[in-house]
Target: Cytochrome c
Amino acid sequence: MRSLVNISMGIAAAGLAALALSGCGPSGNKPNVEIIQDMMESPAIKAQEYDETSPHHSGMRVPPENTAPVGFEPYRYATDVEGAAKNLKNPIAGKMDEETLLTGQKYYETNCAVCHGFKGEGAVAANAPAASKMALKPPPMLSDKVKGWPDGHLYHVITMGQGVMGPYASHIPQKYRWQVVNYIRFLEKRDGK
Model:
């Protein structure tokens, strides 16, 4: 009798499990009734789209005042070159391992070499095509002027730009800018040999 009860309970449990699992599958993914409008598929508005419900009819929203994106760290020295040169310390100063240099080289060659040359030689380089067409020639990274800059000054120029050079903060992520600084220092050392 007891084994018959155990068997019937096992069959009932298996039936309940099969019934529960039958709701999970291709046919069970879509509800029959949408109780709250737009909860299943919210209407997405692209930033460039016209939105009749917004005050300026733009899909792009202005963030609330005094807010910052998660993980964003504002740059303190936006207009203070001397402060950046004096106070910014390279956290990886002198680190010339392969990974650091390859990352620095990647960002340097992508963003800087077109004007400053692949070896840092500046506008005189045959491989700095943009520099030859500029009225104000970019300085070589190997010049005594740039060699004399503290790492913080180089970091600041990469971040905020200088003269006719625009900022590269949006092109070179913050965590890789010091690696670009180290790569420039590597080019300077290699040139001094």
In short: The mean pLDDT is 84.
